[in-house]
TrEMBL record:
InterPro entries: Epimerase_deHydtase, NAD(P)-bd_dom_sf, NAD(P)-dependent_oxidoreduct. Pfam families: Epimerase (PF01370). Residues 3-79 form the NAD-dependent epimerase/dehydratase domain. This is SDR family oxidoreductase. One of its GO terms (molecular function) is aldehyde dehydrogenase (NAD+) activity. It comes from the Bacteria. CDD domains: SDR_a7 (cd05262). GO terms for cellular component: cytoplasm.
Length: 298
């Protein structure tokens, strides 16, 4: 299958691309720079230069592909509405381009923010999450002959080299001199290893039915106190309870999210795709040094 991948050189995309290449797919990745082109060609993929603003470039690449995996997103939490608008413009264009072809369109989303300690499943809607509106508008393109599938990633897709939430929480802890968790730290944080996400995405591309909701979750919910303690131990600072206000003041949106209870399941996804997460746990990665200075900087 000829597959066009946006976000191909990002944290998730740079694992998905070689997974697809190794499985025999012909991959074309979007690259914003010469360095990105070199990184893609080194994996055996082809590259096309452009960004999410280049709709004509994206349209042409999608039209000549047998399927699209849309992983790119502008991660600017100070302008989330603008990022969502850009994402929707790209996805609506992909839907129009692929309409009537039954070709797959996989797109990145997020775990539903349900609250009330309920474990989020594939049957729950994502209306309360920042990207829930994207799912609501794009999944119905299945009725237009597009094999849509929402890839709901856990808030932490971890591994050595991760610059995401846990890396930022580690930096905050280093600067503050302590690793904080909100209240008792019993609230839960779902996670998944990057290698497991790559396998899951390939399987979803190959066999997920139209309109599918796929949840990339390896661990349903790790107590945030356990995460904070592991972070503190890894960088040599104590862990302690903080207020929700203090967490937000120190870490902004991430601190607020770290204080929420966000358990999530991937049981239906595992049954649907025949997928079993086998990568290291988040705590194993932290203890192995995945978030020390030398591991995640660069």
């Amino acid at each position: 299958m000829r597959v066009f991948v946006t976000g191909a050189t990002g944290w998730v995309g740079s694992a998905v691309v070689p997974e697809l290449v190794d499985a025999g797919h012909d991959v074309v990745g979007l690259a914003r720079s010469d360095a990105g082109v070199r990184a893609l060609t080194a994996t055996g993929a082809q590259a096309v230069r452009g960004s999410l603003a280049d709709l004509d470039v994206l349209r042409h690449a999608a039209a000549s592909a047998d399927g699209v995996v849309h992983l790119a997103f502008i991660h600017d939490f100070t302008r989330m509405a603008t990022s969502i608008e850009t994402d929707l413009a790209v996805l609506h264009m992909f839907c129009d381009t692929l309409a009537g072809s039954d070709r797959p369109l996989l797109f990145a989303s997020g775990i539903p923010l349900l609250g009330g300690s309920k474990i989020a499943t594939e049957l729950d809607t994502s209306a309360a999450s920042p990207r829930g509106s994207v799912e609501a508008q794009i999944l119905p393109a299945a009725e237009r002959g597009v094999r849509t599938a929402a890839l709901r990633f856990a808030p932490t897709v971890h591994g050595t080299g991760d610059h995401g939430f846990v890396a930022q929480l580690t930096d905050v802890a280093r600067q503050a001199g302590h690793s904080g968790y909100v209240g008792t730290g019993e609230n839960r944080w779902p996670a998944v290893h990057r290698s497991d996400v790559a396998t899951m995405t390939r399987l979803a591309l190959e066999k997920a039915p139209a309109g599918s909701v796929i949840q990339a979750v390896g661990e349903e919910g790790i107590p945030t106190r356990t995460i904070a303690e592991a972070i503190g131990h890894s960088i040599g600072v104590p862990s302690r309870s903080v207020t929700a206000e203090h967490a937000t003041e120190q870490a902004g949106f991430i601190g607020t999210l770290f204080g929420a209870d966000l358990p999530a399941s991937s049981a239906r996804t595992q049954d649907l795709l025949g997928w079993t997460p086998v990568g290291r746990t988040l705590i194993e990665d932290i203890e192995a040094g995945a978030y020390t200075d030398t591991a995640h900087v660069g």
